[in-house]
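Q: Can I see a sequence and its folded structure?
A: Here is a first one.
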Amino acid sequence: MASLIGIRRRIKSAKNIAQITKAMEMVSASKMKKAQDAALATRPFTLKLKEMMDKVSGGLKGSTHPLTLNSKNPNILVILISTNKGLCGALNVNLYRSLLEFAGNHVGSKIMIATVGKKAKYITPTGNTELSAKFNNLGETVTFAETRSVSAYAIEQYSQGVVGKVYLAYPRFISTLQNDITFTKILPFSTDSTDSVSNYTIEPSSTELLDTLLPYQIEMSVYQTILEARATEHSARMVAMKNASDNAKELIGNLTLDYNQARQSSVTNELLDVTTARMAIE
C-alpha cells in the first residue's frame, strides 16, 4: 500500500510539471515568433548596409579612419551576448565553451569581456580573460536605442587604444531547431571588396560618408546580433520545454503502468490471503 501511495504522488507531481512546462512552451512559442520576425525583418537592411560599406571602403584603400586602422595592441574585447533567463537547454553552456576555446586560441592576448544578458554575469573569468563591462538591463523587447550603449562602449575602447580588436560572440539564429555560436569581428572595420566608387557621385565626399556611416554600421551590427540572440533564446527555450513536456508524459505513462502492475499484484496477494485463510478454516 505504501508503494502505491508513493507512485500516485509521483504521478501527480509529474502531471503538475507537465502542465508548467506546457504553459512555458506556449509562452516561449509566442515570444519566439515575435523575436524571429524582428530578427528577420532587420537582417536584409543590415546586410545591405554592410554591402554598401564594403563598396565605399573598398574604393578608399589606405583610409585613415580611426575605426579602420589596424592596431598592434594584442588585447581583444569580446561582447558576449547570452540569454536573460535560463531553461534554454545547453545554449549558455555552449556559448561559454566556445568562449574558452576562443581564449585558448589567443593565449598571448588579454580577453576583455563585456556581457550582454543576465546569464552571462555568471561566467567566471579564467586565465587570460577578465570582465570589463556588463549590460544586463536590456528589456525583453530590445530597441535600437538601448543597444547603442553597447556599440558606443566598443567604439570607445577601440578608439582609445585599450583593445586592438572587437568581436561579437553570440548564438546566431538559423532556424527554430538550429543555431550556431558565432564570433564576428566588427573592429577594426575591414573589407576584401575591390569595388570602386568611381562610378558613383558622392557628396560631399566618400571620406565624410564613411565618417557618418561607419559608426552607424557598427551600431546596426550590434543591434542585429542581439536580435538574433533573442530569437535563438526563445527558440531554444521552446524546444527545451517541449522536450520536458514529452519526457513528463513518458514518465507519467511508465508510472501509471507501474501503478497498475503494483495494484494488480496487491489485489492478487489479498485474494490469495483470503483463499488461504478460508482453506485453513475448512
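Q: Show me another, different protein.
A: A second, unrelated one:
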Amino acid sequence: DEEYEHRDAQRLGGFRSLLSVPMFHRDEVIGVLSVFRTDLRPFTEDEVDRLSMFAEQAALATVTSQLAASVEHQRVELARFPPQQVADLISSPGGQKLLEGHRSEITVVFVDIRGFTEFSALAEPEEVISVLREYHREMGAHVTEQEGTLGGFQGDGLMVYFNDPYPVVDHARRAVLMARGMQDGFVPLAETWRTQGFQLGLGVGIATGYATLGRIGYEGRYDYTPIGTTVNLAARLCDKAGAGTILASQKTIAAADVDATLLADPLELKGIPQPVPVYEV
C-alpha cells in the first residue's frame, strides 16, 4: 500500500498485511487492536468482525483495569490515614469533600499513662517498648469494641473520637463505656508492671461538642483529625485526671446519661477562658 506511512514499523515487524480496529468506550477511542500477517493476503470480513469483537472485549478489560488501578491508587492514599474508618471514608461517595474539611459534633477521648515519663527515663528501652505494646493492644481492643476512630498513638498517649467519619448515635455514651473498659483493662497490666517495679496508672479525659475535621499534613503523609475547643478541652481534662480517673465535660455526661460525680469546684484549664464544671465518671 503506497499510502502506508509507517515503513520503519513494517520493516521491524516483518509484516505484509495489517488489520487495525479501534477500541471504543462510550464513543471515545481508548486504543487500537492490531493483527498482522507476514504474507500479503487480505483479511476477510469474518476476520474483521472477529477482531472487532475482540476489540470490544479488550476495551472493556482496559476500562476495568484502569478502574482497578484507580481503586488501588486510592488504597495507597488510604495508607496515609491510620484509622480504617478514614480508609473507608475516602472510597465513599463525597468522601473527598469530607476530607477537605467539615464541622461535626463528636466526642473526643484522650488517654495517657501516669508515671510514664519517670518510667521511660529509668527503664531499659526494651522494657519501654514491651509496656507500650501491651498497653496499645489492650487500649486498641476497647477502641474497636466501641467503634471509635483512633486519632493516633503518641507514645503513651492516644486520642480517640466518635461520630466521625461515620455517625454514632450514642457517641458520648460509647466514649464513656470505652474509657471505663480501658481503666478496667489497665488494672491487670498495672499489677504485672508493679511486680517488675514500675508504678503506672491511667488518666482519661472526655469532651463532647463541635469540631472541625479534615485532612492535614503534607504529600506522602496525611492525617485525618479533629481540631477545635472540644479537642482542647478533652486534652486538658486528661492532663488533670489522676491515675485510675476519668474526667468528663458536662455536655458529655448529659449526653451519655451515666452516673458521675460533679467535682466540688470548676477546673481552670489551660486554653479555656472560664473555669469548667467537670465530672468524675
